[in-house]
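Give me structure tokens for this 74-residue protein.
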Amino acid sequence: MEVDDLWTRLPAGGEESQCGWVKDRFGLWWQIIPSALMELMGDPDPVKTGRVIQAMLQMGKIDIAVLQRAHAGE
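Here you go.
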């Protein structure tokens, strides 16, 4: 998966943070956001969107499966 590849390569010599943020070896910050996150966040139901946001705030690398379960209320 492209997200996994970027997450592995970008912070080499840099650092990782929460919510998909990584700093590369040159000190530039990147946020790696899978397209599925935008789909889940675009749901018109604010309860579902809120669960997705709360789940994302607990993550470093964005885990789509966890976000999908949060969206579903699992």
